[in-house]
């Protein structure tokens, strides 16, 4: 599915490109918050229509944690930015709990300063209950990524003037085993994977159109590949990647923050 133009996205969402809510082309200022939120609500509903054959519990934090995700979008991820960072999908101790991409509990509370009610998915894996802001377990990936943002920008408001962080896929797949092993989207059955990717590609393309970043940065190999595909060779944007900060990635366990910062400096982002 080909991403739409800005005017097409606006038309789809019921806007006119000259309207105050969407665009002020004359001075280069875009107010996209309402459009991003409405498009994300549609995205949340679209992925709910999919069916998967994996023996998994499937969590959709865009559904049960929507108030928190909407608050995150409104405050930090719904205006034009220089750089868009994209991860693969939520982690069980990050966005699955908080509704925020890479949403490590400490970062959500102290750096982003977000607090909204978080519900529960229809069914939960006994080993992965949703505790929301009461969760005690810190997600390493989110702590590293948001920690780097805090170190560089000092405040979340300053961060949001230049960057936004999203996930490509909003769903969490946890196998029905005692350990609730995570099943990543790239491991789904082919037909189901392609159906999911079609919806995710269209959403990501529309978010790129709305936020209009100059740099598209994949957090990890998979997200980088999806960005390359969705960008379709558009030379107006630079597509690159940083190491995924997961502790499961051996290269990330020593000096990840400096390695990521070096990429941003080399590209001219920082």
From TrEMBL:
Protein family per UniProt: Belongs to the uracil-DNA glycosylase (UDG) superfamily. SMUG1 family.
Q: Which GO terms describe its biological process?
A: base-excision repair
Gene3D superfamilies recorded: Uracil-DNA glycosylase-like domain
Task: Give residue ranges for domain Uracil-DNA glycosylase-like.
Answer: 80-254
A Pfam family found in this protein is UDG
Name of the featured protein = Uracil-DNA glycosylase-like domain-containing protein
Keyword DNA-binding appears in the UniProt entry: yes
Q: Which UniProt keywords apply?
A: DNA damage, DNA repair, DNA-binding, Hydrolase
UniProt cross-references to InterPro entries, sorted A to Z: SMUG1, Uracil-DNA_glycosylase-like, Uracil-DNA_glycosylase-like_sf
Q: Which is one GO molecular function term here?
A: DNA binding
């Amino acid at each position: 599915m080909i991403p739409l133009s800005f005017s097409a996205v606006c038309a789809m969402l019921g806007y006119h490109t000259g309207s105050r809510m969407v665009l002020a082309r004359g001075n280069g200022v875009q107010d996209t918050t309402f459009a991003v939120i409405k498009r994300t609500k549609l995205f949340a509903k679209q992925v709910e229509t999919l069916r998967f054959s994996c023996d998994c519990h499937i969590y959709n934090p865009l559904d049960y944690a929507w108030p928190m995700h909407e608050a995150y979008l409104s405050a930090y991820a719904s205006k034009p930015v220089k750089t868009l960072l994209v991860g693969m999908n939520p982690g069980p101790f990050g966005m699955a709990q908080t509704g925020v991409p890479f949403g490590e509990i400490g970062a959500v509370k102290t750096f982003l300063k977000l607090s909204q009610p978080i519900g529960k998915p229809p069914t939960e894996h006994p080993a992965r209950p949703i505790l929301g802001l009461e969760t005690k377990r810190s997600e390493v990936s989110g702590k590293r990524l948001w920690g780097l943002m805090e170190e560089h920008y000092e405040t979340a408001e300053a961060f949001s003037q230049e960057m936004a962080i999203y996930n490509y896929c909003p769903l969490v797949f946890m196998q029905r085993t005692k350990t609730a092993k995570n099943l990543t989207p790239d491991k789904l059955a082919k037909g189901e994977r392609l159906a999911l990717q079609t919806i995710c590609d269209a959403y990501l393309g529309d978010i790129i159109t709305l936020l209009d970043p100059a740099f598209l940065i994949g957090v990890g190999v998979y997200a980088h590949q999806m960005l390359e595909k969705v960008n379709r060779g558009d030379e107006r944007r630079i597509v690159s990647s940083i190491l995924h900060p997961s502790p499961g990635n051996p290269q990330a366990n020593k000096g990840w923050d400096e390695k990521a910062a070096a990429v941003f400096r080399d590209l001219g982002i920082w």
